[in-house]
Amino acid sequence: MKNLANFFFEVGMLKRTPRTGFQFLGSGAESVAEHSFRTAIIGFTLAHLDDGVDTGKVVQMCLFHDIPEARTGDLNYVNKKYVKADEEKAVEDLARTLPFGDEYRALLEEFGHKESREAQIAHDADQLEMILALKEHKDLGNRNADEWYPFAVRRLRTDGARRLAETIWTTDSSRWWFDDDGDWWVNGKR
Q1: pTM beyond 0.70
Q2: Which domains occur in the chain, in start order?
Q3: How far apart are CA 100 and CA 103, in angstroms?
Q4: 3-class DSSP state for residue 7?
Q5: Are 58 and 125 in contact (CB under 8 A)?
């Protein structure tokens, strides 16, 4: 039980581990845990749109893909040019302490190879989460988001994710809650 308690504390570190790319974007802040949560919801959705895909596996990959960052930190694309994190060691060290360590190790290995349909969808969910964040920052006036978007789109592997990225980029990120019923916003009732 002690190893499981330690695992939960380790996962909790992701709430305090910042996604470091935002410093280059010039606005925003997000923890690895926040990123992983929305990535899992996106992965669940993408898996449901793709027949024959193991939805549970996609969600697991999305939830677990950045757990090693509790040990290595989040390295953005600039950092990765100069710093090499030993993610395999981080995965192995944690896997040895978990009753499901073999499953955890295999899941991250499959995610890393990007060959299975589930891994491709999980990777697309990871990129779509970033595209959503970029769009939110663009809508708040960050002009750098437009420069980042094409690179994120080029990382997408499935047609469904590419179509969704286009829709995200042309959708106002605040319209989901701010509908056209102006009377509601004035009077507080319909």
Answers
A1: yes
A2: 2-187 (1.10.3210.10)
A3: 5
A4: helix
A5: yes
